[in-house]
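JOB MANIFEST
job_type = single_chain_structure
chain_count = 1
residues = 309
[input]
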Amino acid sequence: MNAGWSWYVIAIVALNIVGCVWLLWWTSKRKPGDPKPTDTSHYWDGDITEYNKPLPKWWLNLFYLTIIFSIGYLVYYPGLGAFAGVSGWTSQKEHDADKARDDRKLEQTFAPYAGQSIDVIARDPKALALGRSIFNNTCATCHGSSAQGAIGYPNLSDDIWHWGGSPDRVLQTVLDGREGVMPEWGKVLTGMGGPNAVDYVVAYVRTLSAPASMENNFMAAQGKSLYNGVCVACHGVDGKGNQELGAPDLTDDYWLYGNSTESLRQTIANGRHGSMPAHRPILGETRARLVAAYVWSLSHQSRTTAKKK
């Protein structure tokens, strides 16, 4: 708040306080010539008379005490423009103190799982319940409450992992996040194979999960050479991808952005940029381990269930 607005707020507050004091004082005094409190000439039902008696002194004094309290409050706490108050209180400090207190309580709950591998944590039903709660509060916004994802957000309940599904790789993904970048290849492919080059590559990519469809497929045959000239660097000759780069396996039936021809064309021509935020600064390492253990358990049900029995 700049100085001008600060003085404006101070003036408004002061005017209201002075106005309240004046109003109490003015209305509580009797002026010469005022009628008696019983002389109002207001009658109802013949025998009910309205009086105009002043407020009792004790009641008026309570109002004055309230005004004095408000002045003290404004001196002690911030409320007069940019004046911070003699206490130095702020909602930010209050929030931070409450958060620190609650975090200490939570750390006592999470402490038994500190430093444990997530596949070990996944064998503990209590730990999985904690991880599921953290997931619902933090991750479900993107991946859904069932962890099955959506267009552009990976399904975490299957066994397909673009960045690797080992306990260490899953934990690294949660802690430090991922940046998946598919470059724009539209102009490059068009320069190599003409205006239909992107469609040729789309046709060839579709055959990677169904090799038999390559037979007598002119578009796929044209797309193969283009694929080998551009796409193999990340996805490999066989289309199996590269988990170190986050390049997906093109031979399975899972498509992060959809498997329609239009979606594949857009992916190849215009590229994609998927971002998984780092949750180390958001959750801390132990809570990140718990949620990673829960996510890992979704695709390893047989291994975690066997340990529970």
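[summary]
The mean pLDDT is 91.
The longest helix spans residues 3-28.
exit_status = 0
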